[in-house]
Every structure is written in structure tokens, then in C-alpha cells.
Write a structure and sequence with these properties.
This protein is of the alpha/beta class. Helix content is about 45%, strand content about 15%. Strands 1, 2, 3, 4, 5, 6, 7, 8 and 9 form a 9-stranded parallel beta sheet that branches.
Length: about 280
């Protein structure tokens, strides 16, 4: 009888044990790798963009259609809700103050402190009857010394003024002697002049150019007719003029209807791309 060989089953058992051990080790290694990967991912801080760092598309900048300069004449007469209403308008506006009235100097201070610019609204002789401001009005019959003194007195009344335009003056603004004296005084004080153009025969702007005084001209009167629809119509003409020429200057007056129209129309015109600018930035 052949003797039983124990080596063969021992080899099978050992082989089985080795295979099981290898399987266990493999599974343990896989588990260790998985845990290491998990730990690594948890250790990494993933930054989420804050609301402040989020990039939103910027709204396109509105193209400027034209620059509108508006002068409001005749301040100084009144100190009420109408004159104060002009100090609440959200635009760069220029306020022309007549010298010699109870509220002239005070309004100039209030206007400048509210962010507006101020000029002297200089009384000048008309071709017809000239009314008011007898101590300041410039007449063509006056000598140089009188004209110069009146100009300096007017400027001293409104120390916040950085320039001048003419009040009435259909005769004086066409007179070479008067306008030459105006130019000399303004040149000496480094001020500018806006020609209100109350006559087609005016030589105001051209005289300023000769003497090197910064100057410009009025393009549109806004409220010769005290009617809201007409004022709007004139304001829109001014806007179109600014669109065509780059800028344009209009003149209105301290009137309730003019104030109402500006309160209503300035925001609309701004949204349409028009910019309101001080006339001091429209000079040549």
C-alpha cells in the first residue's frame, strides 16, 4: 500500500492562506488610499467668490449728446420759494444777479454755497426807456470814469461773481465806448462776459475777443413767453442746438413757470444724454 504524502495538502492550505492574506492586504491598501484622498480633499479650502468680487456686466456709459449751459437772470429782486427753488435744481447752472437790490449779495452767497456759479447781471441802456438800477445802469452818454466806477461798484456788490452778462442793454451793448470799458474792467479782474444779445447790433462778444476777455454768446431765450409749453419748446430747441454744435447757452428768468419746467425737464434731458454745464466752461 502506497504511503500518504502530507506535503500536498499542506501546500494547498498554505497557498490558500497566502491568497487570503493578499486579498485582505489589497482591500486594506485600497481603504487607506481612499481615506487619504478624502482627508486631502477636506483639507483644501475651496474659495467661493464673494458678492463683492462677483463681476457684473457694466451698463454702457451714456454718450453725451450735447452740453447745455443755462443762465437764469434777474436774481436779487426776490427772496422766496421761487428763488430758493432754483437752488434745488440738480444741474450745473449759472445765476445772474442784478446789483443794488436787497437780496443781491445774500443770494450770491447762497447760490455759491449750494453749488451754482454766479455772475453780475449788469444793467445797460436800452434803445427805448431804461428802467431801474439808476445807480448802476451804463448809459452811452457817460464818460469812461463813470462807466468804470459803476462797473466796479456792481462787482463789489456781488463779490461771489466770476463773470458778467448784460441786463437789457440793446443800446449800450452796441456802443463801442461802453463795451470797451466793460472789457477793460473785466480783463483787469480776470472775469468773463456772456453777451445776452438783446440786439442783433451787439458788439459785446467781439469787443471781448479783441481785449482777450473770455466770452460766449446766448443762443436761445427760454421764457420770453411766460407759458410752460413755449418754455419747453425753447428748452428743446436749446438741446438740439447743443447736439448740433457741441454746446449751447440759453437764458431764462426767475419765474415760477421757468422753475417748474426745469424741475421737470432737467432729469428727462439728462436721461437722454444731455449734460448741463456751467457757462464758465463754454468760453472762448
Amino acid at each position: 500500500m502506497k504511503k500518504f504524502d502530507l506535503r500536498t495538502p499542506i501546500i494547498y492550505v498554505l497557498t490558500f492562506i497566502i491568497v487570503v492574506l493578499l486579498i485582505v492586504l489589497k482591500r486594506q491598501d485600497d481603504a487607506n488610499k481612499h481615506q487619504a484622498l478624502k482627508d486631502k480633499l477636506e483639507s483644501v479650502e475651496i474659495e467661493k467668490p464673494s458678492k463683492d468680487s462677483e463681476v457684473y456686466p457694466k451698463s454702457p456709459k451714456l454718450k453725451i449728446k450735447g452740453k447745455i449751459g443755462i443762465i437764469i437772470d434777474d436774481f436779487g429782486y426776490r427772496n422766496d420759494e421761487v428763488s430758493d427753488g432754483f437752488l434745488d435744481l440738480d444741474a450745473h447752472l449759472t445765476y445772474a444777479i442784478i446789483p443794488g437790490h436787497a437780496h443781491s449779495a445774500k443770494f450770491g452767497e447762497k447760490a455759491v454755497s449750494s453749488g451754482y456759479e454766479v455772475i453780475v447781471h449788469m444793467p445797460m441802456e436800452n434803445t427805448g426807456k431804461t428802467y431801474g438800477e439808476e445807480e448802476f445802469v451804463l448809459m452811452t452818454e457817460m464818460d469812461n470814469e463813470t462807466i468804470e466806477r459803476r462797473l466796479k461798484n456792481a462787482l463789489s456788490q456781488i463779490p461771489t461773481a466770476i463773470g458778467m452778462n448784460n441786463h437789457q442793454g440793446s443800446k449800450a451793448s452796441a456802443d463801442q465806448n461802453v463795451m470797451t470799458n466793460v472789457a477793460k474792467v473785466l480783463k483787469d479782474k480776470n472775469l468773463f462776459f456772456i453777451d445776452s444779445r438783446t440786439t442783433v447790433e451787439t458788439i459785446g462778444e467781439t469787443t471781448m475777443e479783441v481785449f482777450g476777455v473770455p466770452t460766449a454768446r446766448r443762443n436761445i431765450f427760454l421764457d420770453n413767453e411766460d407759458n410752460e409749453e413755449k418754455i419747453i419748446e425753447q428748452l428743446l430747441k436749446l438741446a438740439k442746438k447743443s447736439e448740433k454744435s457741441g454746446y449751447a447757452i440759453g437764458i431764462g428768468h426767475v419765474k415760477p413757470k421757468t422753475l417748474f419746467v426745469l424741475q421737470e425737464q432737467i432729469p428727462i434731458l439728462k436721461k437722454q444724454g444731455y449734460e448741463f454745464e456751467f457757462v464758465s466752461r463754454m468760453l472762448h
